[in-house]
Amino acid sequence: MRQAPQMRAEIAGVVVKRPGVPEVLQRDSEGNPTVVHIQPKLEPGEILVERLGMIPEIIKAADAAKPSNAPTDRERCRTFRDEMARAFLGARPAIQGKEADLGAVDSMCRQLVDAERAKAMLRANGYGRNSDSITDMVRTLITGERKRA
After folding, report:
1. Most exposed residue of 2, 47, 88, 93, measured as fewest CB within 10 angstroms of its CB?
2. How far is CA 35 from CA 1, 24, 27, 55, in A?
3. What is the model's pTM?
4. Cα–Cα dist 94/12, whole Å
5. What is the pLDDT of residues 89-138, one digit of tens each?
6. What residue ranges do the domains of the chain occupy?
7. 135, 131, 133, 140: which is closest to 35 by C-alpha?
8. CA atoms of 72 and 129, how far apart (whole Å)
């Protein structure tokens, strides 16, 4: 039998290895998994915080409201802005790209940062899984059911 893959995660500023836990997101018509998400194993009271471009961070549920070294909204906005520019302009550095409407780009980036924060808050309170959309997470909040990953 194969051993579960080891995944890196950051806990209180220290990088650790945890066994990976697969979660089947989609199956084909015969019931075979086609899309699988793997995340580090979580202990009771721990929450996984996905971080764009970085290894995930594992925090205690009590610490979810105040991430230790989380980037500021301005830094997250710049990250989203650079990623959008690279998506449209290709692999060259995003700083070289011409942007037609800086106000519109900044507005989209602020919306992404706000959505990211809302999703983290819902996850910290036990609503939804990392793979759920914000819409699905809000639906679980409204219906009162809680799904843990």
Report:
1. 2
2. 21, 6, 7, 21
3. 0.43
4. 32
5. 666 555 555 555 667 777 787 888 888 888 888 887 777 777 788 888 88
6. 1-66, 71-149
7. 131
8. 24
